[in-house]
Every structure is written in structure tokens, then in C-alpha cells.
Write a structure and sequence with these properties.
2 domains, seven-stranded mixed beta sheet, binds 6-O-phosphono-beta-D-fructofuranose, alpha/beta, 20% strand, 35% helix, Rossmann fold, four-stranded parallel beta sheet
Length: 380
């Protein structure tokens, strides 16, 4: 069957897709294997394409670490967390860390090397499963002539131009289960319990899990908080006999001065500072200012781990299949997206840079406020 790809979207005759590569980039999350399986099987089953897996994100494309994926090699991975291809959140192909014996020698632009391998391997399209970092590299590669499609994934749910990312739902589910459990110990000991969740500079994960668990206070980076308001709420609850308080804090939550709490500096240019510790900081402040005993729990990487829940499996599988079908009809240089209740694709050139933050008027914000949750904003 002649596809639009043969004809070319601008009328020029183009090579029919025969071979595609797929990589997973950035932090892992539940559902990546479901995407790999979906893209591989759909490409083989519906179009007869060859599919190759690229190891450890763009690093594998630069270093030539690739292997074929078959119907059987992706069997049984739908329910598995992580990624069978491996990933890294430290590889920027345009600022690639060259190492010798594990030590950094220099940073160089390795994008040409990646393009060379893509061409010499006779790949027709590169499928990148990634978050905002991977998306930004994909946009640059597309501009340089490499046909590409991005499938958005991250527990942070902060990829621009899509309301859903693979991995988010499982992370919310894991956080919800943990927070539900922490209620009993918080209540028994009459403590303020702060649960710190990942999410980097966006509050989606904290907001969703805070709302789903009925947390009294939800702290997200989008609303700089006032520590006094937090303490007043803890005290007020105590004064009416509610002797415990559940606080869900995003790791990127901060006061009006914008200073975030970091675990430590790293030697990685893509992530020079590692977020973490706001829960512990809050617990010290709350105990000092209210006299009420406080504890903090950092959920950390457990949120990225484990088997994907059904929502992520569905999203991963439909994103993967739809991406393949769209490629077969000649679409390229786009990102799969979920918007206004439907699955769609957005041209890479129309996707804004940066991350997608929680809008102030999001229905989850309104609902949380109506449930009596406090965001403790420093300015209203
Ligand atoms: O972007 C996903 C994410 O899990 C963030 O929520 C978190 O800040 C970061 O990755 C942690 O990265 P690492 O695995 O390098 O500690």
C-alpha cells in the first residue's frame, strides 16, 4: 500500500519507512516498557517495519549501542517498571560529557555523531520517549533534519503542550497509598506529618496526591508559601481537637524569596543542583514555631518505581500505536499529546520551551480549596 510517506507531505517522493529506532531518555518512570512494547509491536504488526532499541537514551545513539527489537523480545514487559533500554538524565547530546576512566575530560557537541549513526544505520525515524529535556534535544535534532517523534513521559507531568504524561498516574497512585498509610501514625502521635514528593519545579504530583488524600496543607512551587500560615493552620487544627496535620509538599516548594532547598550540588551540567529536603526543613520550622511534634517523610524514587497502573498502560499503549500510525501517514517532527479529552499530536516547532506548571485556576486547585486545603500562599 502506498502511504503518504511515499508521496511526501510536500509532494516530494520520499523513502517509505522501513526501519525505526526508539530510545528512552531522562529519569525513568512506570510505563516506559509499555511504550516500547506498543511502538515495537504496532510497527511490526501493522506496518512490517524493523524496530531497533537504542540503549541509555541519546548516549546509545552517540556511542552506537543499539540492538534489534522483535515481537518476542518485548513480550512480558507491559507490566514492568523501568525501561529495558536503559536511560540517563545526564546526557545532553549537544553538550556531551566525554569521560576517560570514569573522569570527565571535556564537554563536546556530539549531535553530528548521533546523526551519523542514524544515517549510516539507515533509520527512517527516531522515536524518543522522554520528558522536557529529551523534548528540547528532539526539537534541535528535528531542525537539523532528523525525522523524530516524541512520546511524553515523566512522573512530574510537566511536559508542555500535553495534559498527560506516561508515568504520572502511577506516581500519584504510589504517593496516595503512602500518604493514606501515614495518616494513622500521624493521628496516633498527634504530629504534623510532612510528605515530600518529587515533581521538580512543578506541583502536579503534590497537588494530585494531596487532593486525593484530603491533605490539610498542600505546598507547590507555583504558590510560594508563608511558613506562618502553615504554622497557624497546624495550631488551629490542634485547638479544635484535630491533633494531627498532613502536609504534602512538592520538592520544589519554596517561600516568597524563591530559594529552594537542595540536597546537594552535583558535577553534572544538566542538573547542577539536586532538589530535596523541603520536608525536613518544614518539620524543623513547624516544631520550633508551634511546639507540635513533626516528622517528614521523603517518598523520593519510590514514586518512579514499580509496575505501571492501568492508566499509564493505556496511555503508553495508545500513545505508542498512534505515533506509529501517524508516522505511517507521513507525519513527523511531532509530539504525541493529550489535550481537551483526546489524543492528538503537536508539531515540535509549536511546542513552547520550558515546563508546564499548574495553572492557578486549575480545577484541582479549586476543588482542594473547597475541601478546606490550605496552599499557604505568601501573596493571595
Ligand atoms: O524528572 C523526574 C524526577 O524524578 C524529578 O521529579 C526529580 O527531581 C528528579 O527526576 C530526580 O532525578 P534523579 O533520578 O537524578 O535523582
Amino acid at each position: 500500500m502506498t502511504s503518504l510517506w511515499d508521496l511526501g507531505i510536500h509532494g516530494k517522493v520520499k523513502r517509505r519507512i522501513k526501519k525505526i529506532g526508539i530510545l528512552t531518555g531522562g529519569g525513568d518512570c512506570p510505563g516506559l516498557n509499555a511504550v516500547i512494547r506498543s511502538v515495537t509491536r504496532c510497527a511490526i504488526h501493522d506496518h512490517g517495519w524493523e524496530v531497533w532499541g537504542i540503549e541509555d537514551g541519546f548516549a546509545g545513539l552517540i556511542e552506537g549501542r543499539i540492538h534489534p527489537l522483535t515481537w518476542d523480545s518485548v513480550a512480558g514487559i507491559l507490566t514492568h517498571g523501568g525501561t529495558i533500554l536503559g536511560t540517563t538524565n545526564k546526557t545532553n547530546p549537544f553538550l556531551y560529557a566525554k569521560k576517560k576512566k570514569g573522569r570527565l575530560v571535556e564537554y563536546k557537541d556530539a549531535s553530528r555523531q548521533a546523526m551519523k549513526l542514524f544515517k549510516s544505520g539507515q533509520f527512517d525515524v527516531l522515536v524518543c520517549v522522554g520528558g522536557d529535556g529529551t523534548l528540547s534535544y528532539a526539537k534541535r535534532f528535528a531542525k537539523e533534519g532528523l525525522p523524530i517523534v516524541v512520546i511524553p513521559k515523566t512522573i512530574d507531568n510537566d511536559v508542555p503542550a500535553t495534559e498527560r504524561t506516561v508515568g504520572f498516574y502511577t506516581a500519584v497512585d504510589t504517593a496516595t497509598e503512602a500518604i493514606d498509610k501515614l495518616y494513622t501514625t500521624a493521628a496516633s502521635h498527634h504530629r504534623a506529618m510532612i510528605i515530600e514528593v518529587m515533581g521538580r519545579d512543578a506541583g502536579w504530583l503534590a497537588l494530585a496526591s494531596g487532593l486525593a488524600t484530603g491533605a490539610s496543607i498542600i505546598l507547590i512551587p507555583e504558590f510560594p508559601f508563608d511558613i506562618k500560615k502553615i504554622c497557624d493552620r497546624v495550631m488551629q487544627r490542634s485547638s479544635v481537637g484535630r491533633r494531627f496535620t498532613i502536609i504534602v509538599a512538592a520538592e520544589g516548594a519554596h517561600q516568597a524569596d524563591g530559594k529552594k532547598i537542595f540536597q546537594r550540588k552535583t558535577d553534572d551540567v544538566t542538573q547542577p543542583l539536586r532538589l530535596g529536603g523541603i520536608g525536613q526543613w518544614l518539620s524543623v520550622q513547624i516544631e520550633k514555631m508551634t511546639g507540635i511534634e513533626s516528622r517528614s517523610v521523603m517518598l523520593g524514587h519510590i514514586l518512579r518505581s514499580g509496575s505501571p497502573i492501568y492508566m499509564d498502560r493505556l496511555l503508553a499503549t495508545t500513545f505508542g500505536c498512534e505515533a506509529v500510525h501517524r508516522l505511517a501517514t507521513g507525519e513527523k517532527n511531532m509530539m504525541m499529546a493529550w489535550g481537551k479529552g483526546a489524543l492528538t499530536s503537536i508539531p515540535l516547532k509549536h511546542i513552547p520551551d520550558g515546563i508546564r506548571l499548574v495553572p492557578k485556576n486549575h480545577p484541582w486547585i479549586d476543588a482542594a480549596r473547597s475541601m478546606g486545603a490550605l496552599f499557604a500562599e505568601s501573596v493571595l
